[in-house]
Specification:
14 helices; two-stranded antiparallel ribbon; 15% strand; alpha/beta
């Protein structure tokens, strides 16, 4: 029994991220090749006009259809990519064009399912499609999404989130994981696994998988906290307690905790654990050291403590992290 071909409309606009546009169709195209019974997907690139659209890389893409014609189609899935700019302080900001937002809203009304890739979530949010929903985006613009749209429950950690018929994806490469999840829902797990195998991808990362962004980015405004952060980085391999940190900062433990929460949005213990996880990540990526040696070198003490910290911080295990990210050459 052949299934109905599913129409996927991908939104195009000037400056759109290229991989956001081209990644998912690569996944969808393999469905037809890997199955006998499924018709698969038909992908159309939609833009305001049929003129070439210049992507963020400078590569130009030809649209297949205009927005006005797309809204007359029976759409299965609307896929919304994103675009970013870099401000004078080198901060990444998602681009939100009102005209594109209006088109996204119109297309969403005609589709069974709405998805965003990376910072495309900002366009969904501006269209009111994420209000009251949990959503994700690239970790670098998650604070912007939360600030601009307080009605959205922003979770910057998972690689993708599904809320009803709305799916949001995280980083650029996570668009492939999101596309595989859509294939799994439409054509079954076995089809998605065959597609993943053809793409030489990790079979299928679950939606709860972390983006692996350890929360060490907040910049404090006080010299005292910067000094204590430096102290932590210099002494990660040693046993450090919150009492040790308070003594080094010449503060009481409660006062230190208040300052850390105000400046960095976390407790001293949470920051210390995150810093150790970050060091352990680099060890796992670049060495063949045993977990026992890494746990000791990063101040965890025991393998069990290392594993628990990875689960809390990255939602994965050290062994799984190494399997996927190790770059050291094996002789």
């Amino acid at each position: 029994m052949r299934t109905v071909e599913r129409l996927v409309v991908i939104v195009l606009f000037e400056g759109v991220d290229l991989l956001d546009v081209t990644g998912p169709p690569e996944v969808f195209a393999l469905v037809r090749r890997e199955t006998d019974d499924a018709t698969g997907y038909r992908v159309l690139l939609a833009a305001e006009t049929l003129d070439p659209v210049t992507t963020s890389t400078g590569v130009r893409i030809m649209p297949d259809i205009t927005f006005s014609d797309a809204v007359t189609q029976t759409i299965d899935t609307v896929l919304v990519p994103g675009s970013v700019t870099i401000d004078r302080n080198r901060r990444i900001r998602a681009v939100v064009d009102r005209d594109v937002v209006a088109q996204v809203k119109a297309l969403a009304a005609r589709s069974r399912r709405i998805t965003s890739v990376c910072v495309g979530a900002h366009l969904l949010a501006a269209a009111g499609l994420l209000d009251g929903k949990r959503a994700t985006t690239h970790w670098s613009t998650a604070p912007q999404l939360a600030a601009d749209h307080p009605a959205v429950r922003v979770d910057p950690d998972p690689i993708f989130i599904r809320e009803g018929n709305v799916w949001t994806g995280a980083g650029i490469s996570a668009c492939l994981d999101l596309a595989l999840a859509l294939v799994s829902e439409d054509f079954g797990e076995s089809t998605a696994l065959r597609v993943a195998r053809q793409m030489v991808m990790y079979l299928k990362r679950p939606s709860g998988q972390s983006q692996f962004s350890v929360p060490l980015e907040p910049v404090s405004t006080t010299r005292r906290i910067e000094e204590i952060r430096h102290y932590i980085n210099e002494n990660l391999r040693q046993p450090i307690s919150v009492a040790d940190l308070a003594e080094a900062a010449h503060l009481g433990e409660r006062q230190l905790s208040r300052v850390f929460r105000a400046e960095l949005g976390m407790t001293p213990a949470a920051y210390l654990e995150s810093a150790r996880v970050e060091l352990a990540r680099h060890q796992l990526e670049s060495t063949d050291d045993t977990l026992d040696r890494i746990a000791s070198a990063c101040g965890f003490g025991t393998i069990d403590t290392l594993i628990r910290a990875f689960r809390r911080t990255l939602n994965t295990s050290p062994t799984e992290y190494r399997r996927r990210f190790q770059t050291v050459a094996h002789l």
